[in-house]
Write a structure and sequence with these properties.
By secondary structure, this protein is of the alpha+beta class. The strands form five sheets. Strands 1, 2, 3 and 6 form a four-stranded antiparallel beta sheet that branches. It has a four-stranded antiparallel beta sheet with strand order 5-4-10-9, with no helix packed on it. A four-stranded mixed beta sheet has the order 12-14-13-15. Helices cover 44% and strands 18% of the residues. It folds into three domains: 4-164, no CATH class; 230-372, no CATH class; 373-424, no CATH class.
Amino acid sequence: MSSFQLKFEFEDAGGVQGPELASTWARLEILLDGIAVTELEDIRTKAVRSAVYAPLYPIAEWFAMNWWRIWFEDRAAWTAAGTRTHSLRKAEEGFALPDLALLPSGRSMQLLSTPYTHQHAAVRFLQVTSAFVGKRAAMDQVGALVEGVLARVSDSTPLSQEWQRIAISLASPDDREFCRAAGRLGLDPYAIDIDIGREIDRSLHDLPRSMRTDFFDSTPPATLRQEREPVVDFLSKAANEQIPLKQSLPQAELLSGMTPWTAGYRHARQVRETLQIADRIFSSPEDLLEHFGFAKPVVETLWPTEHLDAVTAVSRNATPAFAVRGNLPASRNFALCRALGEFLFEPEPRLLTRQGESYRQKRSRAFAAEFLAPAAQLQHLIPPGATITQDDCVEIASQFNVSPWVIEKQITNHQLATLVSPSF
């Protein structure tokens, strides 16, 4: 993880109007691994400096008013619009601030700095960088800035009131969980539609804890009920079933410090070796499960939710049951393999989502890709130094009963060949 610092020193405002602005005028330097993302060039003089001069009150207020979204809206990183809403520029109120996006990603924050020219202030921000920092450490830095500002303004400001409300929520486990869920949905928990608020509460009550983060990360606020109810029904159905296994499932070892794709690839190879199926190609979900020792079908393939690829439930005798999305065998195979791989890592109810970028979602995709289309087998089909087209990927994919996308990812991630796009 990279280091992140917010260094500020309050200074004389030099005639700035407004009590909150004048009392919080400061020199602000934002450092990532010791590099100032606040570095800028004065367009008129060509002088370069590492800090900005601005009131900190609007910055502190922006952090407080958007607190739960800033730290928990993981989906913001999926779109350019989401990235913009998480940029510090939203707090500038006419003063020049760097285009620094704070994008949550599980227990980390991606800090993304983009150069731009602030025409009104006639300055050009210079740094382009992307780094991951620990969420807790970043929260501490922002919290110190907010507290520093609060010490210089009255208790009746919107900032003071919002910060107190956040403190009350943090002190209550139930309130804290509700606020985090709302933040993951991109909503302000203190100004939420009453019907959506009820659906958040219901989802927190009905879904097991192991599913909640992925559910709120992937589901639009308006469809919480439609997405939740089939999941809950499936969990209940599976819990009343007895699903026998002919053999024990091979468990995965959770190792810290390993990237999600490395963990997924490694475990896929270990499972194939344990089951002694190094060269096996799977034609259907039923074929796949048969080799893991399932004695009867445990897969539902007509899954009505739009944003989920697969759901893992746990039966009465603690074995898994699966619901997968997709009409094509290749889609169902991949979705099922993702869910199966995650159950081997953590045998509890899980959601595998279409867009999620959490560690678990990435790991499950890597496991499924390597298990269904092993890099070692692809190497036998692709000559060293070969150039592969999208048509080639389609042909190879048909041999492994996966989508061409899986083959493209395997070739790229394992550096098996050079992929070229078609020219028209």
